[in-house]
Amino acid sequence: MHEQPRLSFYPPIETDLSGWLPVGAGHEIYWEQVGAADGVPAVVLHGGPGGGANPWMRRYFDPARWRVTLFDQRGCGRSRPFSSLDQNTTWDLVADIERLREMAGVEKWAVFGGSWGSTLALAYAEKHPERVSALILRGVFLLTKEEMDWLYQDGASRLFPDAYERLVAPIPEDERGDLIAAFHKRLTGDDPVVRSQAARAWSQYEGDLLSIGGPAARPPAFNDDAYVDAFARIEAHYFINNGFLERDGQLLEDAHRLTGIPCWIVNGRYDVLTPPRAAWRLHAALPGSKLVIAEDSGHAASDPGIVDGLIRATDEAAAQLGKIAP
Do 174 and 188 fall within a single domain? Predict the structure, then answer.
């Protein structure tokens, strides 16, 4: 039996529409659209929180079959004001996605999200299941206390003790029992030097754990001081507030609201940031969902097994939702 050839990114595609959408509280969300005007509607939710949309995110979709909306969430990327935490919560972002859907003029759309983007995708879909035609998720993050403790207290530190040592370096010993609180205090404080040191340590840690390629595979954005500041501040803001969810485990407990929505899940076997256990649990809670565990991949959306799994998912979803390949 011959193995199927591994799929890679679709060719680069330029944005044909873009702009800023006022969403209240002084926030303006940057958005862009690519692909066929009559393509299957989709929205892409980037990671972080506090990351931003990138051109390579367009390339998971066949431009002849999809009409894709990408946007930068509040406070990051090209959205304004930059690095703002004011009225920046999960439910504000869910409302922003609905505003974007209305602006796009579509009744429902496929929701594509990775890492924190998978968290936001689940929150949106559970709030507005009638607006979701499909879910395509990567690196599932359910934003539970268990996952947070694994990442910032005891878990990932056992696999990456060197990276963890760099993370905790700016935090006094007596504050290391709650690293999220310790970093949040510094990232929202008035001392610009302390804030910068904390932002660099926080972001470097995530960059170190991102890919099985190690620190050398860290995306260039992690070298940009402005990106690092927004990324660290917004993540700490969300994490100290438990993602603004009503209860621990909410997203998995409410997965029954997604019954009937086609769902594809892709997770790296060696994903340290979002280990496969959460993806496995979500798959078990969603009968009919398709789960791919990429055996040669970590968390990075650019790892070859992740790319292959996501492109197979978007191709299958396009066919299932009615846009057959030309």
Answer: yes
C-alpha span between 293 and 283 (Å, rounded): 11
Whether residue 312 is found in the same domain as residue 190: no
CA–CA distance, 43 with 68 (Å, rounded to integer):
6
In this structure, are 160 and 238 located in the same domain? Answer: yes
Task: Give the neighbor-by-neighbor strand order of the sheet with 109-114.
Answer: 17-24, 27-35, 66-71, 40-45, 109-114, 132-138, 263-268, 290-294
Do 75 and 82 meet the contact criterion of CB atoms below 8 Å apart?
A: yes
Can you say whether the dihedral through the CA atoms of 21, 103, 18, 9 is positive or negative?
positive
Q: Are 297 and 269 in contact (CB under 8 A)?
A: yes
Whole-angstrom Cα distance, residue 53 to residue 71? 6
Question: Bridge partners of 17?
Answer: 33
By annotation, the residues acting in catalysis are 115, 271, 299
pLDDT tens column, 195-252: 999 999 999 999 999 976 655 556 666 778 899 999 999 999 999 999 999 999 999 9
Dihedral Cα 8, 213, 112, 206, nearest 10 deg: -160
Angle between the N-to-C axes of helices 192-209 and 161-168, in degrees from 0 to 180, rounded to the nearest 10: 170
The total domain count for the chain is 2
Indicate the residue among 192, 225, 243 that finishes a domain.
Answer: 243
CATH code, 312: 3.40.50.1820
28 and 81 part of one domain: yes
Whole-structure pTM value: 0.96
Residue 266 exposure: Cα atoms within 13 Å on the Cβ side: 29
Q: Which residues contact 134 (CB under 8 A, 6 or more apart)?
A: 110, 111, 261, 262, 263, 264, 317, 320, 321
Residue 252 lies in a domain: yes
Report pLDDT digits (tens) over 284-316: 999 999 999 999 999 999 999 999 999 999 999
